[in-house]
Amino acid sequence: MTFPKDFLWGGATAAHQFEGNYQGDGKGLCSADCVTRGDGRKNIQRRVTFKTLDGKVGSQVVFPYDDLPEGAIVQCLDNEYYPTHEAVDHYHYYKEDIALMSEMGFKCYRMSINWSRIYPLGYGKVNEEGLKFYDDLFDECLKYGIEPVVTLFHFETPLQLVNEMGGWIDRRCIDYFVEYCKTVFTRYQNKVKYWMTFNEINNMEILPLYAGGMVKNDDQSKAIGSYHQFLASAKVVKLAHQINPDMKVGMMIAYTACYALTCNPIDELKKMKDDQTRHFYMDVQCRGAYPSYKLKEYERKGIVLPIQEGDLNILKEGTVDYIGFSYYSSSCVSGDPKQETTSGNMTTSVINPYLEKSAWGWLIDPMGLRIALNQLQERYQLPLFIVENGLGALDQFENGKIHDDYRIDYLRKHIQAMKDAIEIDGVDLMGYTPWGCIDLISAGTGEMQKRYGFVYVDNDDLGKGTKKRYKKDSFYWYQRVIQSNGNDLYEEKDYAS
Predict the structure, then answer these.
(1) 388 has catalytic annotation
(2) Catalytic: 398?
(3) CATH fold of 8-20+88-263+275-328+364-483, please?
């Protein structure tokens, strides 16, 4: 058998894209609650809304991001639509949703705890109703033998921390985050074994509002925000091991295989620098120190890290247990600025002439996943966990059925790449949780029509619909994949039979 017997098959979501009930049962606001809907195919970007010092309201795009006006307060506005407020209402449908996951055969479920549901302000008084919700959710998972895999921070900075201190640029966020983690580690230590600290931590480079609740976008501010998150992650890893030595804490990064467009040395140098930018966030969390290439970059730019006594030891002692990463597509780079580009997972890429694209312009490259797995294995020698992978597509709902052969084809080829990486290359892969296992709000575009799930949710881009769940063809296909431990990928069957 190619996949280990204890391989963690499952699916993935994030609280702000899935739960809804955004202010219910004592929950506070978070940064994601103040971001509007966009339209990826029409290149309409999501926007963050705010009020200025003189009382005027405004908004600006989150990608590419610019500094918010000085003194602006991020907030929700009455005349705007925020898709994550209601999302698909997993908060009230969690029992039905977990039952569907169990029917597919999930061994694990990757999700996030929304920090502001536990600490409405990010600090201070704990919200018992929020803790109880996750207690109930975890109990429901464990009832079916589903292992929770919990992300502690998934683009959900408590809004109070954004407006009071500018997000993770303020060192106080470290202590607040550690206290929040101490609360949930202590509460759920016998229910949750696998944790991850920061979702796609490297998105601080391009999406500082998402990645760190940051109101500034300059290089110095982002370097400080990342530094504080590295320290917080290291402290949290040590804390988890103290509370329960059996708990495993990983990091999480958005990752791609990266190709030079040509063998021109200029393109190869561009690829090398692109790889360094991506690997930096893993180098610190997996190796426990800043790499020389990043320190030299900071020196050139005049960036100074706010290092305090003992910080470097904390980084060294708090390295992660495994690497979680998202993989949707590969990327391609060129030193020629005239090359045509296309979108990807919160990034852009030079168009690779050898690859097809999704309806949203993302390059489709299963072989790139095998390459990525090998790169990570060779560089870090840590267990790997693919915690996001999937195809955002326009699903046609016809007579209660959704025939999504395109999704099956995408996932089949990526799972085959995983098999090859394990069987041929000897990669240590611990699990696979395709993104958006039940339809949810797209983080990048705020759309509902960009669907990823094995389960269709009757909900449109404006939040209208019954919220009823329907099984897609991919539901039955993935069920068979899990039952066979990844060996039955190709045989065509009546999926619903």
Answers:
(1) yes
(2) no
(3) TIM Barrel (3.20.20)
